[in-house]
TrEMBL record:
All copies of domain Suppressor of fused C-terminal, residue ranges: 303-414
Pfam families: SUFU (PF05076), SUFU_C (PF12470)
Lineage, uppermost ranks: Eukaryota, Metazoa, Ecdysozoa, Arthropoda, Hexapoda
Protein name (database record): Suppressor of fused homolog
Domain of life: Eukaryota
InterPro entries: SUFU-like_domain, SUFU_C, SUFU_C_sf, SUFU_N, Suppressor_of_fused, Suppressor_of_fused_euk
Record domain Suppressor of fused-like: where: 54-230
Length: 419
């Protein structure tokens, strides 16, 4: 736990209590309705508040003992609730002020439900550290967390040997959206998942995986309670989970529109003659803005080139997502972007039906600065879907592995992760 945080339980004498900020009091009031017998729960408190230069954005994290509903397969658990992602004060010290009809702060608070062990006499505090880490991401990036989002963590949430190493987000089953004097606040619950479940949520979507988890009491059940001792994934608990996810993937495609990874591209000659003035008319498209909004400078934005041929390079981790990009996105008329973790390079694969792109059947490869768009026609998408099946078993690949389509002046190479 951060040195700037402390546990509090017993309040000071009433005559020493400062007035509770209105936004905070609104959230406390909601919690008291659920936990009327726990008006003074154990809390993790940031000693040096964020607006005073402290490291932790969450002012408080309350920890409640929830008895569950055992006869409905809802076990006793610890319920953690954050305070600080929404506007608690309304005076601009952390968030831009909003009226009661707007969104309070980032519009949500985090919650987490951890299965209570029989030996537990008090709640573990590591979930508070986890919630502070997620809050820092939100404050630093400006990106909010919503139900059905996934978070790749790549280590046990409690730093143990647990298989629960990633997260999905869902709606808290007890805390409904509430209106505060400073706007609306939703409650987004963290759900611990294992690597296989993360990959399935990336392949298909978070909502589908949450529905499967909800049906399985051993995997969290209807209230999505995280059990750090869970040793079996949904695929081991539910024999037909693979088939269900594959059907959903084929029917719905994937909600994952891009990833960060190691990737690069190079040109193999490019068109001459025609200029690109017609392409500059499309700079306001949603696809274009979704990438350039926080990337290229204005000079780079004007460097649009039609390329005659291209060579794409992905490391194995990124390349293993090519089947998803093609089968789950392009074949469903969508786009998928690989954003380099080093530098500003990006590669966007687009279906012909995607609007507002730079590419065209006559010039399927177009770069704008270090952003490359690649048009994948239907026949090529079908060919790639078959060709990339070998990437389903990446451990069997001999690397580097190059896939080539000479008639399209396109080649893709997969290299080892450490290269």
């Amino acid at each position: 736990m951060n040195e700037a945080a402390t546990l509090t339980h017993h309040p000071p004498p009433l005559n020493m209590l400062p007035p509770t900020p209105a936004g905070l009091e609104a959230l406390y009031s909601l919690c008291r309705k659920i936990y009327p017998n726990q008006v003074n729960p154990l809390q993790v408190t940031a000693l040096l508040k964020y607006w005073l230069g402290g490291p932790d954005p969450l002012d408080y994290i309350s920890m409640y003992a929830n008895p569950g509903i055992p006869n409905e397969n809802v076990p006793p658990h610890w319920h953690y609730i954050s305070f600080g992602l929404s506007d608690l004060h309304g005076d601009g010290r952390v968030h831009d002020p909003s009226g009661p009809d707007g969104v309070s702060g980032f519009g949500f608070e985090l919650t987490f439900r951890l299965k209570r062990e029989t030996s537990d006499t008090s709640p573990p505090t590591w979930p508070a550290t986890l919630m502070q880490s997620l809050a820092k991401y939100v404050f630093q990036s400006g990106n909010t967390l919503c139900a059905n989002d996934h978070v790749s963590w790549h280590c046990a949430l409690d730093n143990s040997e647990s298989r629960i190493q990633h997260m999905l987000m869902t709606v808290d089953p007890q805390l409904s959206a509430t209106q505060t004097p400073f706007g609306t606040v939703n409650f987004v619950q963290i759900v611990g998942i294992c690597t296989e479940e993360l990959k399935a949520s990336q392949q298909w979507n978070g909502a589908g995986i949450l529905d499967i988890l909800k049906r399985l009491p051993e995997a969290g059940g209807s209230w999505h309670i995280t059990d750090m001792r869970r040793g079996e994934s949904i695929f081991e608990l539910e024999p037909y989970a693979h088939e269900e996810i594959e059907r959903g993937f084929e029917l719905d495609g994937s909600n994952l529109s891009g990833v960060s990874g190691r990737c690069s591209w190079s040109e193999q000659g490019y068109f001459s003659g025609k200029d690109c003035k017609d392409l500059n008319l499309r700079l306001e498209s949603p696809l274009h803005q979704s990438f350039i909004g926080n990337s290229l400078d204005s000079a780079e934005l004007l460097r649009i080139r039609k390329l005659d041929g291209i060579h794409l390079i992905f490391n194995l981790e990124a390349g293993s997502l090519l089947p998803l990009a093609i089968r789950g996105r392009v074949k469903h008329g969508r786009h998928f972007t690989f954003k380099s973790v080093i530098g500003e390079t990006a590669i966007t694969l687009v279906a012909r039906s995607v609007t507002g792109t730079l590419v065209h059947p006559d010039y399927p490869y177009v770069s704008q600065g270090c952003w490359l768009q690649v048009l994948i026609p239907d026949d090529l998408a079908q060919d790639m879907a078959v060709t990339f099946q070998v990437l389903a078993s990446p451990e069997a690949l001999s690397l580097p592995k190059t896939f080539s389509w000479p008639d399209r002046k396109l080649s893709i190479t997969i290299v080892a992760d450490k290269v």
